[in-house]
From TrEMBL:
This is C2H2-type domain-containing protein. Keywords: Metal-binding, Repeat, Zinc, Zinc-finger. InterPro entries: Zinc_finger/UBP_domain, Znf_C2H2_sf, Znf_C2H2_type. The lineage of its organism: Eukaryota, Metazoa, Chordata, Craniata, Vertebrata. It comes from the Eukaryota. PANTHER family: ZINC FINGER PROTEIN (PTHR24403), ZINC FINGER PROTEIN 827 (PTHR24403:SF62). Gene3D superfamilies: Classic Zinc Finger (3.30.160.60). Residues 26-53 form the C2H2-type domain. GO terms for cellular component: nucleus. GO terms for biological process: positive regulation of transcription by RNA polymerase II.
């Protein structure tokens, strides 16, 4: 699985970049989106990398986020 490390190392809490700015806010270096949690930011970065590491075992569906795979699996449950 490709690493996001090159992108992760370019992000710094805005409070450290801009003294007097919001502390603990993480900004995407690609699109500028701001998030309060690093975990949200890490998840967001998959939008820019195109990495789809979660795969359905029942069909060709792939996605970047586990919660999207969980939602997708309901399609198979409904099909019975």
């Amino acid at each position: 699985m490709p690493s996001l490390d090159p992108l992760l190392t370019t992000t710094t809490p805005l409070g450290e970049i801009n003294p007097g700015g919001p502390a603990g806010v993480f900004q995407c270096s690609v699109c500028g989106l701001q998030m309060k949690r690093r975990s949200y930011w890490r998840r967001h970065m998959s939008v820019h990398t195109g990495l789809k590491s979660h795969r359905c075992q029942l069909c060709p569906f792939r996605c970047a986020r586990k919660d999207n795979l969980t939602a997708h699996m309901k399609v198979h449950e409904a099909a019975g």
